[in-house]
Amino acid sequence: MTDKKLLWIALAVFMLxxxxxxxxxxxxxxxxxxxSVHIARVxxxxxxxxTLNADAELEKLFQKYPDFMPQxxxxxxxxxxxxxxxxxxxxxxxxxxxxxxxxxxxxxxQFADVSDxxxxxxxxxxxxxxxxPELKLPGLYFFVSGFNRSVVITQAFVGxxxxxxxxxxxxxxxxxxxxxxxxxxxRESIAVDVVSAILFSHFPSDVTSDRLLDNMLYRGKLLYVxxxxxxxxxxxxxxxxxxxxxxxxxxxxxxxxxxILDHNDLYSSDLMLIRKYLNDAPFTAPVSQDSPxxxxxxxxxxxxxxWMDKHGNVxxxxxxxxxxxxxxxxxxGYQP
Length: 336
Hints:
The chain is mainly α. The protein has helices at residues 3-24, 42-47, 54-64, 68-76, 84-96, 98-110, 115-131, 190-202, 212-229, 235-239, 243-251, 253-262, 271-278, 295-309, 316-321, 325-332; strands at residues 39-41, 139-143, 151-153, 157-161. The chain contains 16 helices and four strands.
């Protein structure tokens, strides 16, 4: 091989690498120490609760977490936050329960160190601040709920029930959840769930028509933003698919799209049909029993990807403002 050919190969490789880096860094930002995220460990404080001094311990919790504790009891556990005696009694019972004492011990062991989650959220929050300067990011709290809630979001905070993220194979989950849902009940899903909850909360549906198309692309926009502010995550992690489910969707992408079109589902306003395409389920019924659930959101994401590839100057904020979904489809040139 001549030196000239070697030079052209080297240049071609450089251009491919440069193009790949440029695309992956399109929405990247510099992270400073001021961006550091800290997770308040209510879960560990609850597990360490001194039941022999319950009244005093309870007041300490309310003083330490004044924003969170009233919501924890009233909204998550549906208990009157003002009835301290009742709350103390309930905490005693919860901590004495043999099932949850084992679960709580597993939480302590698996989540003793959450610095990896804080580091990932630090990067994602920095990106959110840069791309959405008006967005006021919430505080973060970990809690235990007795398998009651996994994610809670208010204007002030996002709460994560760590007892709901002990691993997809955790023995107790088969008693409280469907098997197809347990895959994402693992530590690796926490950071994605936090950022996803923030996006869905702060950017609620802008769909002006009840058509499947509009709902697909709204979900697709949020998945695109989620992937942009969490660039280190693989695509299947962003949507909560297993690697096999992602590869199946890729393999049959053309057939999935053809099925949606052939059944005239794309412009359907049938709410039951739309739920079958978008809601969590063991499979997407209108497509195939071999498919993963939520294929409508997955296809919507692919269409948004295609549209953004053709609109290189569109910011994430502008993407979320765009709600002419027919125009987006037409301009995307999506044709798998």
